[in-house]
Amino acid sequence: SQQGEEDPQALSIQEGENATMNCSYKTSINNLQWYRQNSGRGLVHLILIRSNEREKHSGRLRVTLDTSKKSSSLLITASRAADTASYFCATDAATSGSRLTFGEGTQLTVNP
Amino acid sequence: GAGVSQSPSNKVTEKGKDVELRCDPISGHTALYWYRQSLGQGLEFLIYFQGNSAPDKSGLPSDRFSAERTGGSVSTLTIQRTQQEDSAVYLCASSMDRGSSYEQYFGPGTRLTVT
């Protein structure tokens, strides 16, 4: 079963708007990572947040982590059409070594 | 430097045939992972190699699936007697080390279609 669950499953917005995607997980984690996937092929790492961190920024990306609620959010500000992709959260659970457990993803569509 | 490469990029095979999928990790990366992704789904962990340690095979769905990593570098995922439910994109990833702070770098995947 999947550790992470993304919400929403699909999101459609206009260019310039912000996009927020959420991820919930079930077990204790070492870290949580967000990945982006275009056209169902290779994934690209976006950002990693450790379990002792609460917020992290990278360019137009902002990730938060609430370990008490076992949830994370990814915010993309000032979205662009090129941000259209699937976004996955992945957890590195404390008891599973370094294997990542992925959610089923949020499909983001940014309309020009 | 070069990223993770996988071959072939696409593979169509008949049910019952064996297939081999190859992964070349980034040079110097000691950890290597195999995942598969069915259409519209997230990634499912299959197997993990770290250095000379015994691999974590806990994600392999059946004994038809096996993988090896030769010389701590190239890995081959073998699926014997393929079934239609094996159709998926098989993704390989590598990272610098086993540790919670290392991101995984993914290859472009092999799209396997079993007819």
List the helices and strands and how they pair.
The complex is a heterodimer of chains A (112) and B (115).
Chain A: E1 5-7, E2 10-14, E3 19-24, E4 29-37, E5 43-50, E6 55-58, E7 61-66, E8 71-76, E9 85-93, E10 101-102, E11 106-111
Parallel strand pairs in A: 2-11
Antiparallel strand pairs in A: 1-3, 3-8, 4-5, 4-9, 6-7, 7-8, 9-10, 9-11
Chain B: E1 5-7, E2 10-13, E3 19-24, E4 31-37, E5 43-50, E6 65-69, E7 75-79, E8 88-95, E9 105-106, E10 110-114
Parallel strand pairs in B: 2-10
Antiparallel strand pairs in B: 1-3, 3-7, 4-5, 4-8, 6-7, 8-9, 8-10
Structure description:
The complex is a heterodimer of chains A (112) and B (115). Chain A has 112 residues and is mostly beta strands. Helix content of chain A is 0%, strand content 57%. Chain A has no helices and eleven strands. In chain A, the strands form two sheets. In chain A, strands 2, 4, 5, 9, 10 and 11 form a six-stranded mixed beta sheet that branches. A five-stranded antiparallel beta sheet of chain A has the order 1-3-8-7-6, with no helix packed on it. In chain A, a hairpin with a 5-residue loop joins strand 4 and strand 5. Chain A is globular, with a radius of gyration of 13 Å. Chain B has 115 residues and is mainly beta. Chain B is 0% helix and 46% strand. Chain B has no helices and ten strands. In chain B, strands 2, 4, 5, 8, 9 and 10 form a six-stranded mixed beta sheet that branches. Chain B has a four-stranded antiparallel beta sheet with strand order 1-3-7-6, with no helix packed on it. The termini of chain B are far apart. The mean pLDDT of chain B is 91. Chain A binds chain B through residues 2, 4, 30-31, 33, 35, 40-45, 48, 50, 88, 90, 92, 97-105, and chain B through 4, 31, 33, 35, 37, 39, 41-45, 48, 50, 56, 59, 89, 91, 93, 95, 98-109.
